[in-house]
Specification:
The chain is α+β, with helices and mostly antiparallel strands. Helix content is 31%, strand content 30%.
């Protein structure tokens, strides 16, 4: 399972074989990855869903 947001700057993926959730945030040097409130809620839901699958 994989989730991408913030124009590709944020990737969330589930590795069921290792029972690990990987969260990767990448942007230009010293720039924060910004999420809207709705995007943050969706990220939280995706994290919960993935945690339940581990």
């Amino acid at each position: 399972m994989k989730y991408i947001d913030a124009d590709g700057d944020l990737t969330l993926e589930l590795d069921t074989a290792s029972e690990v959730i990987r969260l990767k945030c990448v942007s230009t040097f010293d720039s924060p990855v910004e999420l809207t409130a709705d995007a943050a809620r969706e990220l939280a839901q995706q994290l919960l869903r993935m945690a339940d699958e581990c």
